[in-house]
Automatic annotation (TrEMBL):
It holds the Pfam family MerR_1. One of its GO terms (molecular function) is DNA binding. This is HTH-type transcriptional regulator ZntR. Keywords: DNA-binding, Transcription, Transcription regulation. Residues 3-72 form the HTH merR-type domain. PANTHER family: HEAVY METAL-DEPENDENT TRANSCRIPTIONAL REGULATOR HI_0293-RELATED (PTHR30204:SF94), REDOX-CYCLING DRUG-SENSING TRANSCRIPTIONAL ACTIVATOR SOXR (PTHR30204). InterPro entries: DNA-bd_dom_put_sf, MerR-type_HTH_dom, MerR_fam. The gene is zntR_5.
Length: 150
């Protein structure tokens, strides 16, 4: 495959050129060379690298995590890749726990509403209007727990 400009690579990868520049600033992507006019030029390995980044993002890895994973090659110990994945799993577990707490709080609000009658009597609307002491407690507890865990 012939060297590609950033625009052509962006089209091949279905990404905006600014995204590629951002990845470049973060060290996730580097041009293989420069043209005589000083344009960035990329080879086929850049497409493979962008596919790697796309798959990693789809699994929820952060860009710093992806940089860590991309730095592993050749003789690097696979334990480092596993550590990055396990760290991400722990973050997902914490988020799931937060969402379950949020769901429980919302379920309590929903269960308190008979589902018929005037809206002015709706316990959900009353709790939301009452402010942070009532409605937000369902939301603030998971956030508080997550902050304390950090």
């Amino acid at each position: 495959m012939q060297a590609m400009t950033i625009g052509r690579l962006a089209r091949c990868a279905a990404l905006a050129p600014e995204t590629l520049r951002h990845y470049e600033r973060l060290g996730l992507l580097q041009p293989s060379s420069r043209s005589e006019a000083n344009y960035r030029l990329y080879d086929a390995s850049a497409v493979e690298r962008l596919n790697f980044i796309r798959r990693a993002l789809a699994l929820g890895f952060s860009l710093p995590d992806i940089a860590e994973l991309l730095a592993l090659h050749g003789d690097a110990d696979m334990a480092a890749a596993k550590a990055v994945a396990q760290r991400r799993i722990a973050q997902i577990d914490a988020r799931v726990a937060d969402l379950l707490k949020l769901k429980a709080g919302l379920q309590t609000l929903a269960d308190s509403c008979p589902g018929h009658g005037p809206a002015a009597a709706c316990p959900i609307l009353k709790a939301l209007a009452a402010g942070p002491d009532t409605a937000a407690s369902a939301r603030s507890a998971p956030q508080r727990d997550a902050q304390e865990a950090r």
